[in-house]
Design brief:
Number of helices: 7
Shape: elongated
Radius of gyration: 23 Å
Strand content: under 5%
Order of helices and strands: HHHHHHH
Number of strands: 0
Length: 192
Amino acid sequence: IYLAALVGLTPADAGCMQSLKQQMTRGQEDVINAFYGRILAFPPFKEMIEKTCERDNIDLGQLVAHINGVQFKHWQRFFDGTPDKAFKEFAQKIGVAHEKCMLSNELYVASSAVILEKFLGLAIDQHLGEASQAQTVKASLSAIVRMFFLDISHAISAYDNAAARTAFQQVSEPLLNAFEVEVASDLKSMAS
């Protein structure tokens, strides 16, 4: 729940999210179709999905149906706007499933931009309808979302690489030092 505080989520936000829930539920098929349209056109994603289907011995339609069911259930909780333990645990299960498929953090974050962009469009439709400014606002918010998620994706990629190097150094340096001491001791005993 501390992350909810960090992002600034308030009780009033739950009301806002709940007011959007019906609109989002009606539009969730369009959101998920836009998501699949984008990721399946991206070769690394398509390859990952094909490998997952092969590993689990299912076809793409079965995988998509399963993912949709899980995702739609999660979005119902999401639009309750309640960052409780159940919400956190479900989100973490999704993260573990993505890791099992070997989805990198930066691809996960970058692809999430599609979903947020579509959610924002649905919110604008609910509040502005066909107002003359709605399309301009959607285009501006979409551009912001895309750049923001690209920025985060690059930062996460660098973070992951740096964390892996740090972990490797923390494990390898003591081993290397111990090896050097052992070799020096062996050489010293051989010289005597």
